[in-house]
Amino acid sequence: MTVLTIRELERYTENVLVFPAFHIEVARHEVVALYSGMSVRHTLIAMLGGRMPLSSGEIRVNDVAYTTNKAAYVSQIGFVLLEDGLYERLTVKEHFIFYKNLYGSDLAVDKAIRTSKLDAKANVRVAKLGSSEKRRIQFARLWFQDPALYVFEEPDQNVDHETKLVFQRMVQALSDNGKGVLVLTGNMETAISVTSRIYRLDEKGLKAFDVQDTQDAPQAAPSETANYNEDQQQLADDEETSEDEPAIQLVRFEKIPTRMNDKIILFNPPEIDYIESSEGQSNLYIKGEIYPTSFKINELEERLQSYGFFRCHRSYIVNLQKVREIVTYTRNSYSLVLDDQAKSSVPLSKTKMAELKDMIGLK
Fold it and tell me: 202 with 40: CB under 8 angstroms?
């Protein structure tokens, strides 16, 4: 059963496209993460909460739209937002009693306190709590509300390890109990910690990330993979294939794998802005986020050359499609300015400058 349906939703702000029309669904038992910038996130939250009218498309929760039945819609969706406030003069327990009465919940207050790991602070006023403990109170409010769809904005931003664990266990329990969960974040690690179904939403639209559990997708080291492919190629060249044996077919794997926690994220080459190598570690830079990869920079140069990537410096590879400017500082000092949000600057060595000029036809 589908809990959340977003269909053909788009938004312009002062003639600037925030995101184009997209479609996404969240079913019962599902956890979906939307990775986006702050503007997209705030716009989507306002639309989900009914505070911003929809100029096109629709949003339905349990097949109910905000415009057709506001009360039924609101009762089915719960939010934990980054800037949610609390009653500073109340204690933790008083907060929970208030939530229990507000939502008419059957959940025991003591159980909610234990689940939130706030046993030792039950009788402490909120004003004396740390930001991580306050965040756990916000999580617990949704236990009492018990909606069909849970929406979390940056749920573990600037919180301690215990609060992150509380959040992860909460999401798992909600999924097990048939709830739908939508996590809105600009932090890939947050998204990966709770789900493998991750999408990026920006002005270019909705795009799914290819994420795998490492335990489900064991991978050989790059050098081992290269040796294996060479051996297989040699076998294919030197041996005749019998009629009873299928030929060995070598498939070119176009995506670049990176690891984060216990997940593997697979990126298409055009998504990568540039690559930096430091102390033997290669990092991919994608929309301001850094993703480590086990490939050496020489291996990445070879794999990405056919996709328009250029080794501009001994420690850098750049996606030439992302280059906006070539800047000359001195006769021997150059850099490439990228067409990304941060206007990233990548060094260009003198020898590579001459090579780049030849490539793009400059004299």
Answer: yes
